[in-house]
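It is worth pausing here to work through a concrete case rather than discussing structure prediction in the abstract. The textbook approach is simple: state the sequence, then state the predicted structure, then interpret. We follow exactly that order.
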Amino acid sequence: MRPMSTIVRAVVAGALASMVASVPAESATGAVTKSVVSRAKALGSSSRRGRPRKFTLPSRAVTVTLPEHLIGALQTIDADLSIAIVRALQSLAPRMPQGPAEMITYGARAVITVPRNRQLRERTGADLVPLSDGRALMSFDDQLAIARFEVALLDGLVDRTLDDETRQLFEAVAGILRDARRDSRVEVRGRQIIELRWKPAANGTDGEDGANS
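Step two, the predicted structure:
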């Protein structure tokens, strides 16, 4: 049996798709207007200061009118309606290319996800915790502070031997941290996670296979 959240998401996605295709916003009886405001504009506005981006793709503020029952269903996915709509419709939208570093927002918090990259791990000391989509979270031990991690990124960027893919990754992560550090409304914190790691097999592998060189 599918989890209830999956069923709700499928139902909401179908309803939203039908509304977008054929129903004018004004025709929904008992509908109320909800503002869905993104926290950032296009990705290209990296020089602009402000709160961290809610989405990593170009975004803009819109106002939508939805029936009350759909609003309630969306709020079971996420309290933030814009995030809930995106999650509900993701399966219907063409898959967009992922950036070198992406910020995943949940409520008032956000985490940075990155591709599995050996250079990032070896040059900064960060541990990469794999996610189901092939990307990873960055984890630090007690000896690595965020400030030292950021310095390691900047040191890597001045190294001419750094490959282009890793350079783009370092620039993206450093840019997210720089924007957050300059925003007085944002606090950058390091969090510990619980990780279960299998002991190395007889052939010496440690589960890190697949990371870029």
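Step three, interpretation. The radius of gyration is 20 Å. DSSP finds six helices and six strands in the chain.
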